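A.,

Following up on our hallway conversation. Structure tokens first:
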């Protein structure tokens, strides 16, 4: 199989996707605007060939690159980036080169939060009341209807960038004056914990691997308040969450893809659907999955493309936790003291790319342990302020 990865070097911890596919016998082709010499040695070894363009946003250059790959290697059978940012570009290239996967006609349902709400309702899920408010009159009418607080975020957007929690008239006026010139959806604020249902589907849409994350606080609060976060991967996925996630995967038609679905868990235990992301969970979450299960999810993805099924099921013998720290915050323990005191819990640690640092911190630790209480005590110890 000929597989093209757009920007295979980013995020840096995704290089094993290319490596495992190459090990499985596939032709793995890289396409990006980064200089070849900046690629990691592991990625260079995994790629059959790398094509550098001057600008990944120049679609004509991408078309020429795929034309070259097709002429040299034959039909391109898969194309991906595992990134939200390139979803639309991927879709256009798949359409033009008749490659399996999401096409431009699928983009509204996987990019627009307003369209997601409609599909959530069809899947039987409760959603936060929301509306795309295109002028101040519509906005004020919606606020009068649901009351403060409300949350405003881009209808098409990634993460919690430029997301506002509005608690009163003064903040509403400030939002109107300063919001970016793109369509925003405004929603009633839901006071719940963020939980996720994440996984991988086969070509028929069957979920072959799944997991769930729970967060210490919302990413919106972490970004807007410039604080830090930890989140953990559970060992037992709640039955109602798995049922809701499977219904959403079916109605969105997720096939041979990773997904990352977000929900609010309310105080009464019920779920409210928040957002769909047709990509792997971000940051070091795939590495967390590997440490939680003593397995290699990158190899299982290669197995899926090679044999149509994964070779190993996730049994979750460990809880796995991501703990982020920010450079400007003064913590009780320095990095060396963290490793000395908690080394038995630390499975992995590394600097975090600056693109993700507002949400995930400048440095991240992956912890694992079969006991959640012990693990969260360590997470809180690592983030304890001086």
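Then the amino acids I'd put at each of the 386 positions:
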């Amino acid at each position: 199989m000929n597989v093209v990865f757009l920007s295979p070097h980013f995020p840096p911890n995704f290089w094993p996707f290319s490596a495992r596919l190459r090990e499985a016998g596939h032709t793995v082709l890289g396409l990006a605007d980064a200089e070849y010499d900046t690629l990691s040695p592991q990625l260079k070894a995994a790629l059959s060939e790398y094509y550098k363009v001057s600008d990944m946003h120049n679609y004509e250059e991408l078309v020429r690159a795929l034309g070259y790959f097709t002429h040299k290697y034959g039909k391109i059978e898969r194309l991906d980036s595992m990134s939200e940012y390139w979803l639309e570009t991927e879709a256009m290239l798949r359409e033009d080169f008749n490659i399996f996967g999401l096409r431009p006609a699928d983009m509204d349902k996987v990019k627009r939060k307003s369209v997601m709400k409609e599909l959530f309702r069809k899947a039987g899920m409760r959603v936060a009341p929301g509306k795309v408010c295109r002028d101040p009159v519509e906005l004020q009418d919606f606020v009068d209807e649901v009351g403060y607080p409300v949350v405003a975020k881009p209808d098409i957007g990634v993460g919690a960038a430029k997301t506002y929690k509005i608690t009163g008239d003064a903040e509403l006026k400030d939002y109107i004056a300063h919001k970016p010139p793109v369509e925003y959806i405004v929603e009633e604020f839901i006071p719940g914990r963020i939980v996720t249902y994440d996984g991988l589907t086969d070509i028929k849409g069957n979920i072959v691997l799944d997991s769930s994350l729970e967060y210490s606080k919302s990413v919106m609060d972490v970004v807007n308040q410039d604080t830090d976060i930890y989140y953990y991967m559970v060992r037992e996925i709640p039955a109602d969450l798995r049922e809701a996630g499977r219904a959403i995967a079916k109605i969105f038609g997720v096939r041979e893809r990773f997904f990352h679905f977000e929900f609010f868990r309310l105080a009464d235990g019920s779920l409210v659907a928040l957002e769909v992301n047709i990509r792997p969970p971000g940051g070091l979450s795939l590495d967390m999955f590997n440490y939680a299960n003593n397995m290699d999810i990158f190899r299982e993805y290669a197995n899926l493309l090679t044999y149509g099924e994964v070779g190993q099921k996730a049994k979750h013998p460990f809880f796995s936790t991501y703990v982020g720290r920010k450079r400007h915050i003064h913590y009780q323990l320095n990095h060396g003291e963290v490793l000395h005191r908690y080394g038995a819990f630390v499975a992995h640690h590394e600097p975090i790319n600056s693109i993700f640092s507002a949400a995930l911190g400048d440095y991240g630790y992956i912890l694992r342990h079969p006991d959640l209480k012990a693990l969260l005590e360590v997470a809180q110890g690592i983030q304890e302020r001086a």
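Residues 193-382 form a domain with the D-amino Acid Aminotransferase; Chain A, domain 1 fold (CATH 3.30.470.20). Curious whether your intuition agrees with the design.

B.
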